[in-house]
Amino acid sequence: MPRTAFIVSGRTAITAEMLAHSLITQFEDVTIRRIVLPYIDTPEKAEQAVAQIRAQALTDQCRPLVFSTFINAHLRQLFDIPEALMMDFFESFIGPLEQELQRPSGHTAGKVHGIANFEEYKNRIDAVNFTTAHDDGGMAKNLQDADVILVGVSRSGKTPTCLYLALQYGIKAANYPFTPEDFAQHALPKPLLPFRHKLFGITIEPERLAQIRFSRKPDSHYCKLETCQDEVAQAETLMLAENIPYLNTTRLSIEELSTTIMLKAGLKRRCY
Amino acid sequence: MPRTAFIVSGRTAITAEMLAHSLITQFEDVTIRRIVLPYIDTPEKAEQAVAQIRAQALTDQCRPLVFSTFINAHLRQLFDIPEALMMDFFESFIGPLEQELQRPSGHTAGKVHGIANFEEYKNRIDAVNFTTAHDDGGMAKNLQDADVILVGVSRSGKTPTCLYLALQYGIKAANYPFTPEDFAQHALPKPLLPFRHKLFGITIEPERLAQIRFSRKPDSHYCKLETCQDEVAQAETLMLAENIPYLNTTRLSIEELSTTIMLKAGLKRRCY
Questions:
Q1: Among B55, B73, B101, which residue terminates a domain?
Q2: Same domain, A23 and A129
Q3: How many domains does chain B have?
Q4: I want to staple A214 with a disulfide (CB 3.0 to 4.6 A). Which of A223, B17, B138, B182 is the partner?
Q5: A9 closest CA partner among A83, A84, A115, A113
Q6: A178 contacts A238 by C-beta, under 8 angstroms
């Protein structure tokens, strides 16, 4: 029997969605349809949302799950109805925190995903600008400003990881491809030499790489399995010889790569 | 008196960090230092983390706050120590959900930020590739594959928003700048004409735009306040005349812009 989950928030609903997702994915054998209702910031909008939840309960013939992050306790209380299972993340934790810190919380909305701190926000935009300008070996002369430089063969997944590091952590992440010409030299590309302490490698299984390259340029030398095997082997040899730490992206998501790079490269986030 | 918050997880700690951030920012007058401990996935690592928390309690002379998202109940229990205030997200919500859904949860780690669903993962990488290729008017002929096309004057904030839409929602988001030449024609740029139903505008206060442009190209005509006032006024006139919905980015974060665009353009996320 399919169920419905409502994800409700006074602001973007991003936190509520992530928390709901983490819980829902623990029940794989239940089909749970999700309806996201962001910017529920007035009693009128809240009452409309409650009416929608009640209607869904009738349609589904069972209680919708409601995941919410209401800072405003009055709005939240409007959702305390017997027709739904209400799980509010603030309600559960803000009380124990207020007691521990011996003061009331601010009850201020828009702190999490708004422009709460302009300095942090600037760090983030600067990092995104830096990262897009330094994609795929671009503007190699400005690499001294990079926090980290991802290296690896073409299509190993450097770009999405760099973009994630920039957007989510405010990290200036350049990336620089290893090419067959570099392997012929048995040495790091020249522009990277002054920055070897900032290098972090990404490798990938040749079979996966061949698939990805095939979907970009089918019938090319570039996407042949032997080409991929050869390039990956040489890249790994080079990284080992040069003492560059590296990760295999084949079974790691962008988030897993990014958080591991943050940890292993000792990087500190510059924005939330 | 400064406090310490530990953010602990068996995986990336991204969910735990967001949860902690959303709670901590409600206590603005308390200085709370954050220590993130991801990939705590063995009893040995958990015991090390607990020792670090105990040591911090002594240093701080008060209890650290511990925010966690442990799927593994055994690991989580190791953190139930009197020297810390433990707030585990799963512990609080998985019980009520199991009861409501009348089945046990999977207790499977890596569901949230791992490659849980390869199809979704591919959507995401495809969206990132599309978005980087279609930044700033690039590859205008492939715009038929775009889910949304952001328009606005140069430096109004289109690129970071497009990247966020691609990375977080798997949305193929192109962007296309309005230039003084377009305004001279009093018409939409030709490549956009077949796709006007996909257009979403971004505008910005001229004073902010001048600041941003100045930091990129000081002493240019491009960054003069009058230039910015003129371009913004003409862009807004054009968007109104062409019935293009638009948002003002001056006080909106990337997340607020992105979630509002998703909502107003009726877009559905293609990945988690």
A1: B101
A2: no
A3: 2
A4: A223
A5: A113
A6: yes
Look up the ipTM and state it: 0.91
* Burial of A29 from C-beta contacts in 10 A (0-12 / 13-18 / 19+): exposed
Cα–Cα distance measured from residue A241 to residue A234, given in angstroms and rounded to the nearest whole number: 10
B116: left (phi over 0), alpha (psi -120 to 50) or beta: alpha
User: Is B171 among the domain residues?
Assistant: yes
Known binder of ligand: residue B138? no
B271 within some domain? no
**Pair B97, B210 in one domain:** no
Per-residue pLDDT of chain B (272 residues; tens, 9 = 90+): 789 999 999 999 999 999 999 999 999 999 999 999 999 999 999 999 999 999 999 999 999 999 999 999 999 999 999 999 999 999 999 999 999 999 999 888 777 888 777 788 889 999 999 999 998 887 777 899 999 999 999 999 999 999 999 999 999 999 999 999 899 988 999 999 999 999 999 999 999 999 989 988 888 999 999 999 999 999 999 999 999 999 999 999 999 999 999 999 999 999 88
- Give me the domain span that covers residue B194: 118-264
| Residues from chain B contacting residue A129 (CB–CB below 8 Å) | 159
Chain B residues touching residue A256 (CB < 8 angstroms): 11-12, 113-114
> What SS3 string covers B210-224?
HHHHHHHCCCCCCCC
**B220-237 per-residue burial string, b: 16 or more CB within 10 A, e: under 16:** eebbeeebbeebbebbbe
CATH number at residue A224: 3.40.50
B198 is in an annotated binding site: no
Q: Which residues of B touch A272 (CB under 8 A)?
A: 21
The angle formed by the CA atoms of residues A203, A204 and A208, to the nearest 5 degrees, is 160
Which two tokens mark A175? 């990336």
Residue of B63, B128, B256 lying closest to A12 (CB–CB): B256
Task: Give the C-alpha distances (Å, rounded to integers) separating B149 from A72, B84, B206, B245.
Answer: 35, 49, 22, 12
DSSP letters for B228-259: HHHHHHHHHHHHHHTT--EEE-TT--HHHHHH
H-state helical runs in chain A: 14-24, 43-60, 73-77, 89-101, 118-133, 158-169, 180-185, 206-216, 225-241, 254-264
